[in-house]
Structures are given as structure tokens and as C-alpha cells.
Amino acid sequence: SFGSGGISSSSYPLQLNLDTAGRILVAGWVNTAPNRGGVIITPTVTRYASDGRKDMAFGNSGTARAGYDARYLSPMVSTDPFGNVLLSCGAGPTDAATDFAVERFTDSGIPDNTFGGGDGISTVDFNGQHDLVMASAAQSDGSIVLVGNTTVSGSNNGSDIAMARLDSSGN
Questions:
Q1: Which of 87, 68, 66 shows the shortest CA–CA distance to 76?
Q2: Residue 105 contacts residue 112 (beta carbons within 8 Å)
Q3: Which of 90, 146, 80, 76 is nearest to 115 (CA)?
Q4: Quick one: 128 exposed, middle or buried, by C-beta within 10 A (0-12, 13-18, 19+)?
Q5: What does the alpha-carbon distance between residue 101 and residue 107 come to, in Å, rounded to a whole number?
Q6: 81-108 residue pLDDT tens
């Protein structure tokens, strides 16, 4: 059996992946500012057991929320070789000033304070304008590769491919 009657659900699911233990990770979002003019979201990751039951020991009742706001609905979830959960998205306060962002959570769904700036978050800004991560992957040494696009002033199409590689500590 899977979930309840063969069905398991998440709020606004956008992408899924499996962790090394076969558990299901679903990237999604919650609207954290419906009354602040426009959509400002917080990316989330919800973990389910392989049988579709929500893993209540992960994060807060099965869901971990990113420690940053995002302006675009593109959160992605992956894992690193050490079992940490990686949640990537384009993050920033305005449409014109988003950065690549990745947050690393421990296996229990809490931000990993050994990653990034001590809050579990690492960001990459290419040119002070709009950067949007579209895919992410962890390498065997724990390094994280992020790829997406960045706004390029004076470009014919207005954007270009952007890629960054962070070491296992988020630098």
C-alpha cells in the first residue's frame, strides 16, 4: 500500500527526488506573503517514507521550510553523498535582484549550520541582477553544482547560462 488508499499529497509540489534510503523528497512552496503585493514564497521540502506516509520526524511535522524568500516557483530538491537534503531556488527580495540559493538540511530536516554562512544557506550572485537556478546536483565529494540563467545587460535575449560550483561547506 502507498499513503492512504494509494494516495499521498503535498501543498504545491513542484519536483521530487529520492534520498539514499529510498525516501521520497518533494520540493514545493508556501505563500508567505499573500498581502504584501505579489507572490513571495518560501520553498519547502517534505519527506515521505517509501510507502507514501509523511515522515513526521523530518523538519516540522514532515516539512522543512527554507530560511529565505523566493520570487520564482522553481524549488528543487536533491541529496548529497552524506545524506543531507539540498533545497535550491532563485531567492531574493525583488524580481530584479534574485540570486542562486541552496540550503542544506540535515537528515532530520533542520538547517545545517556548518554550511554557507552558518545558517545553512549559500547564495551566488552573478551580476547584481536576476539570477535563477534551474537545476542542481551534488558531486561525490559533496560539492554542489548549480546551473540556471542570469540577466545580461545589452544581450540580444536578455539572459545567459550561469553555472556555479560550491564546495561541500557552501563556499
A1: 87
A2: yes
A3: 80
A4: exposed
A5: 19
A6: 999 999 998 887 666 678 899 999 999 9
